Amino acid sequence: MLLLPLLALLPWAQEAPASLAYPSLRPERLAVDMQFLASDELGGRATGSFGAQVAAEFIASRFRAFGLQGGNRGQFFQSFPASIRRLDQERCGLKLFDAGGELLQSWQAGESFLPHPGAPLGRVRAPVAFAGYALTSPEMEYDDFGLLDLEGKVALILRWEPQANQRNSRFHGRRFLPQSQLAKKIRACRERGAVAVLVADAPGLLERFHSPGAPYWPAFSRMFNQLIPLVQAQLDPKELADTNFTAAQVADQLYIQLQVSGPLGTDLPVFFISRPVLERLFRTAERSPSEWVADVDLAEAGRSFELPASVELQAALQTPGKWGRNVVAVLPGSVKPDEFIVIGAHFDHVGHNEAGTIWNGADDNASGVVGLLALAEAFAGRDQAPERSLMFVAFSGEEYGLLGSAWFLQDPPVPWTSIAAMVNLDMIGRSRNRRLHVVGTRSSPMLRSLVERHAEDLALDLDFESEEFFDRSDQAPFYYAGIPVVFFNTDEHPDYHRPTDTWLKIDYQSQSRILILAHRLIRSLADLKQAPPFEDGYNRLRPVFQREARLRVQWPISFEQRLDF
Question: Which of 51, 117, 226, 281 is a good FRET partner for 97, with 20 to 30 A between their CA atoms?
């Protein structure tokens, strides 16, 4: 019975010397946590399952033992809905009142208005102020806010930017400015005191009169009921069975992934509204949105104003059928404690079936979580903490469509702007010939050179061009939030998403070398004088008006239904 474990020790004879300085990075230490996380007792760690709860408690207990602090507002856990979110339509509504508080008109959720799925829901009643496109661009000599007072008000804003459909637009033609991203517009409104945001299509750009957002809510989506037949037609039944998913589960995962694909990172409720609702709001001030847009296009300056009206917004969800939990811990920085390097790895896998077959998920992704714990222990055990804080996050819900990482950004423990970089570990235990895929380095000019320098003595074969992995793990939502990312991965193999992905097949020696590289990189990022500048090196964040763009979700979403602009 001891033969296989002893054979597994043989590769450790050529251990990387650098790991000796950090005992937690040694191969034999990695194997201990691996054997627990990938054990049958955890039942495959499916999100929301008992095994996943045990894994989360185990990870949190290790973080506590290292002396780390709870990273989610002092707590170690961050819960999130892990099933399709459905609106409670009885508790959704939009009401318009005049300056004296008299009800002028009310609307139900649907064609007139819908909540943005990447923002919190709730109830708000406040005066309304129109903030134009919510853009400030000194280089373009354009400012929508000016002296507008948004304190305690609902901000009414337009999507995109002036002249977005014109090739000769002063705003770089039809390619959008970074400030045109919806998350940045919401942030600008929040900084000026807004309590909620109403978002409408800019008149004159699209001949559409209903509210955006319908594809993201089952009650209003034309695609939702077609998903299961579509999955059944596209995927072989044996392939589904081998990966422990049914067609209905895959359909649910696709839809959940769509719903969480556009987090805004805000605490403000955000609602899409239709053209008729926009026009009705303008009429309270005896104005026309089309005329306003035409005037702005001619004058090349924003002209925002307060409306003599208030609105009441309300939206709520039905109770989710399943919950997941991220585990979040922080090692405070010694110089810049309010800036963070996020180190992440997902701990969920695909569970087990009724016949008792268990998908243990050793490489996918107990290997990454083992690495996360090893790095946390290595950094926590040093006398001198890095200059920036390190935030260690064990994500759940990755196999359901990056749910945990998307929720982390939708309800962020710290502002997006305080996250200097994100390093993700996913499937780092099955390197072939010490090959390592390093994905995301084009998100900042300095990342590739840092990785190459820190890997010089580790005998790793680095591949920086495996872009096919870009959207398939938890670094992707961070990139779309404008945060530099690095993703370490040792590639797929015949045991990927199969019950045969067990701890006995892990190459602990190569895993140790990868973690040494990760440790060096994280330390460098944490100690940089200036945070690494983000660069859209994968050309995904500045779309051209009405041109199909590369998105994280594999869905036929039209340009006007995007959540990020």
Answer: 117
CB-CB contact of 49 with 325 (8 Å): no
Please state, in angstroms and rounded to a whole number, the distance separating the CA atoms of residues 175 and 170.
11
The secondary element (H helix, E strand) that includes residue 186 is helix 182-191
pLDDT at 301: 57
CA 421 to chain centre: 13
Eight-class DSSP state of 53: H
Kindly state the tokens that stand for 10. 């043989």
User: Which fold, 47-83+323-387+398-527?
Assistant: Aminopeptidase (3.40.630)
Token pair, residue 519, equals 């440790």
Residues 528-563: pLDDT tens digits? 999 999 999 998 887 777 666 666 665 667 777 888
Question: Model's pTM, two decimal places?
Answer: 0.90
For the stretch 205-224, pLDDT in tens is 777 667 888 889 999 988 88
Mean pLDDT over 251-276 rounds to: 91
Q: Is 3 a residue whose pLDDT tops 50?
A: no
**Residues 58, 62, 63, 68, Cα dihedral to 10°:** 150
SS3 annotation, 362-385? HHHHHHHHHHHHHHHHHHHCCCCC
Domain 89-319, CATH class in plain words: alpha beta
Residue spans of the domains in the chain: they are: 47-83+323-387+398-527, 89-319
Amino acid at the residue 57: E
Distance between CA atoms of residues 180 and 156, nearest Å:
15
